[in-house]
Amino acid sequence: MVERQILHVDLDAFFASVEQRDAPELRGKPVLVGGAGGRGVVAAASYEARVFGVRSAMPMAEALRRCPEAIVVSPTMGRYQEASTEFFAILDDFSPLVEGLSVDEAFVDITGTERLLGGPRDVALAIKRRVVDEVGLVASVGIAPTKFVAKIASDIRKPDGLCIVEPDDVLTFLHALPVKRLWGVGAVAQEKLAKLGLHTIGDVANYPQHILEKKLGKNSGAHLGALARGQDSRSVTGGREAVSIGHEQTFESDRDDLEYIENILLAQCDKVARRLRKHDYRARTIVLKIRFADFNQVTRRQTLDDPSSDSRVLFERIRSLLRALPIDASKGRSGKVRLCGVSAANLEERDAPRQLGFAEAERARGEALGDVMDQIQDRFGNAGLGRASHTKAKKE
Fold first, then answer.
1. For 260-298, how does the pLDDT look when each residue is reduced to its tens digit (9 = 90+)?
2. pTM
3. Most Cβ neighbours (<10 Å): which of 25, 117, 148, 291?
4. Which positions ≥6 away from 338 have C-beta within 8 Å?
C-alpha cells in the first residue's frame, strides 16, 4: 500500500500579513486587524503583536492594553479574497486534491507525484517559494501521512515553518504534545482529561480505550483515542468549492431595535451580492450570524430555491431568519444584539446553465440591476449610489 503524503499549507497571520504587504510602513510593526471602536474585536494579529499575548477574537480594548503601540487597521476583505484566490491557484498547480479549510489554509494530497514534482520537501519548498513570489505572503507547511498530523506539523514551527513527519515518527511526534492539540479538545474536554490524569497525547494513547469511552462518551472517546494513536483515515477531498463570502459588524452598543438591525443586514446583503457579482458567483445558501449581548452566538442558514447574486433575494431570506429570533423590543423580546453578519455559501459560477422560465427571467432582471449599480459605484465610488436606509443606519 502506498503511504499517503499530505501537506497542510497555512498562510501566516493572513489578514495582518496582507495589510503589511500592501502598506510598507506597517512592516515590522505590531498590527491588529479589526474594529477600532470600544466594541471592536481582533480579527488577526501580526507576529509582532502576538509576542505581547495578543490573539484573534480578543476584545480590541484588551489587545491595546497588552500592546499599546499596536496599529489598528480595518479589514479589507476584497484584498484578502484576492490573495486567497491567488493562493489556491498555486496549490491547484500541484495536485487536483486540494481541500480548503478556510481562506488561508488547505490540505494538499501529493501522493504518487514524486516522479513529476519531486519529493514532499521539494513540493513544500516550491509552494512556499511561489507564495512569496506571486502573492507576497509567507506560508508554513506540514507534511505527514495523515491530515491530523499534517495540520499540527504546519503550526509547530510558525512563522515560515516547514515540518516533515515521517510515517515511522508519527507517534514520537504526537505523544509529547499537550492534549489540547487533539482535534475536538477544547477547554471543557481538556479539563475532563486532566481529571483523568491525561495531560499529553501520549497519556491519551496509553489510557484504556474502554474507560476513555465511558468517561467521555463512546464517540468522543473513540475519536480522541484514534487520533492519539496516529489513526486518521480521512482522505483529502478535491473539487473544492469557492470560499464563502461574508460581512459582519460589531455595534458600538447592544441593539434590540429590529429596524436598525435590518438596515445593517440589508447593507451587508448589498456588499455580499456585489462581491458575488464581482467574482461571477451565485449563492445557493445564505447564512445569518447573530451574537447576543451575553456573547451567545447563533447562526441560521437557508437554501435558496434558485442560486442568486441579487441582494433583494438574499435579504428576503435573511430578514425572515432574523425575525424568528428573540430580538424585537417592540414585541417584548429581550435579546439585545452585539454583532450581526451575512455570508453566502455553497457558491456556483454565475454562467452555470439554468432552466429558463419566469423565475430565471426575474432573477436575471434583479442581477442586471445589480450590475448597473456596480458600474456606477465602480465609477463614482460608494458615495455614487446608495440606499436611504443605509444612511439612516450610519447616522444612528
1. 999 999 999 999 999 888 888 899 889 999 988 877 778
2. 0.65
3. 148
4. 39, 250, 251, 254, 291, 292, 293, 295
